[in-house]
Queue: 2 jobs
Job 1
Amino acid sequence: MASDAVVAATVEEVDCVEFLKRNFPPSSLDADDAGFLTDATYLRFARARNADKKKASDMLRACLEWRKEYKPHKVAQDEVAKAMQQLTTAVAGCSLAGQPIVVMTIGAQNSCEVEERVKQIVYILEEALRQGHGRLTWIIDFAQMGKHPHDPRSSVTRKTTMKIMQDYYPEMLGTLLVYRPPWYISLLYNVVKPFIDKRTRKKVLFLGHDEKLLLKHVAKDQLP
C-alpha cells in the first residue's frame, strides 16, 4: 500500500487498513458518497481501534450505516447558513500546522435548534474531508461563559456532536486548544484525563488566558 496517507502507519495499521479495504470497498456506500472511503479514512478507523480488525470493522460498519441514513455528504451550505452566522461555532483560516481552524465559543448565544447546530458540525467535517484535510485544529474559547442565560440546547448539541465525531469521524482532531477557561475546567479535565487515550491527550493543550501561547499555533489573521 503506497498511498501517502499511510506512509507513517505501523505494520499492524497497514494490515488492518488492507483488511478494511477488502471488507468495506467504496461500493459499500452510495455512488455519490464512495469517495469517503479513501486510504486516509481506513487508516483513521484502524488507528481509532489500535489496529484491532474486529473493533475497527465494527466501527466502520456503524459509520457506513449512519452515512447511508443521514447522508452527510448531501448537507448543503444553504442548510447551515443560519448556523454559520452564529457566534458559537465559527470556521476560520488555517493553523500554523496547515489544519483548518474551528473556533467554538462556549456560552455564546445561538438562536438555532439542535438539529441545525449538529448539521453545521457535520458540514464542517465533510467540507474538510472534501478539501483533503484529515485533521482540524479546534479552539475552545470560554470567554463568553456565564455572560448569557444557560441554553439547554447547547448541552444536547455537544453530547450529540461528540458522539458523531468520535464514532463517525475518528482521528480528525489535530489539536485542541483550550483558551480562556475558568479555573475549574482544568481540574475537571484532570479527573477524566486518565480515561482518555494517550494519543488524544497529547493533542489537548491548555493555554490559559495567554494570547501569546495561542499565537504559537495560529496566526492572528487566521482567526475569526
Job 2
Amino acid sequence: SLWETEEAGENEEVLFKGYKASLESLATDGYTSLSQMTVIEAQLTNLSAALNEANDFYSTMTITALETVNVMVPISLTGAWNAGATMQIAAEVAQDIINQKQLMLPGYELILDFFDDECDADKANRVMLEKYASSDQWIGVGGMGCVEVCESLAVIASSLFLPAVSFECSQGTSLSDTGLFPDFTRLGTTRSQVPDILTALQAQNGWNHLSIITDSSLMYYQEAELLQLALPDLPSTIHSVSANQWTDMVDVMTELKSGKRRIIYFFGDEHLYRRVICASEAAETLKGLTWISEAILSTSWWTQDDDEVMVDAPTCNGAMITDLYSGALLLTGVGE
C-alpha cells in the first residue's frame, strides 16, 4: 500500500542518517574502537538489506504495472528473399529502447512475436491465423518484406481489424492502392523513379537495347513487364529463367552474346543472380557486361561461394563472380 511504501522510505532514511553520522564521526576523530567498527558494520548490513528490499519492491511494482502490447511480426528468415534476420535485429533493438525509455509507450511493454513467413503468402497466412486464434491480445501486424506476403496479410489483417505495417515490400505499385489496402502502411521506399533513371542512362550512354532477365515466378515476371512498359523509347526483351535450369540459362546468355547485348537488367533473388552471372562466363561472354538490378539483397552477396552454383560451374566462386559483377548498378531508395 501507499502507507507501507512511505513507511519503508522513512525507515531507509533513518538507517542512512545513522550510518552517515557514524562515518562522519570516524572521519573527524581519526580513531575508532572495535566496538565502534562493529556498530558501523551492523548499520551497513541493515541499510543494505533495506535498500535491497526496496529495490525488489519497486522492480516488481514496475513490471506488474506495465500493460503488454502484442504484435505479430512475420519476417522472411528463409525463402526467396531471406533478409528477415536483419529485420529482427533492428526490431529487437527498437523494442528494447521503447520498453526501457518508456517515452513512446509510457505504461506499456511492447512484445514482438516473430515467425518465419518463408517469403510465401500461403505459409504466412496459415501461421498468422493460427497465432490469431491462440490469443485475443493482438493489436497489430508488423514486419514482412516480400510483396506477395504483404498483399495477402494486409487483406487478412484488415478483415481482423488489425493495422499492418511492413518493413519492406517496396516493389511495384499495387500496395500503394489505398482502396485495395486501406489499413496497410509500407516503410520500404517505392522504386517509381527507376524508369527515369534508366532513360537518363540511355541518353547518356547511347543504349539501343535493354535485356531484362527475370526469375520465371509470376511476381518477378510481372515486375519485368511493368519495367518494359515504362520504357517505351528503349527497346527491350524479357528472358525468363529458372534457377534449376542451368542449360537454359547458358543458352540465354549465349543468345545475348550473339546479339551483342551488353546491358542486362535483372529481377530475382541473389542465388539466381549468381547463377546468371556465372552462366555469362559459361557462355564465354566478354567481361564488362553492365548489370543492373533494384532488389534489396544481402551485403556483399556477390563475394559468396555458392555451392549449388558451383555444382554446374565449379570454377565460378565468389572471387570470379566479384570480377564479373564489377561496375554493376544497384538502384535502391529511388522513389518520389
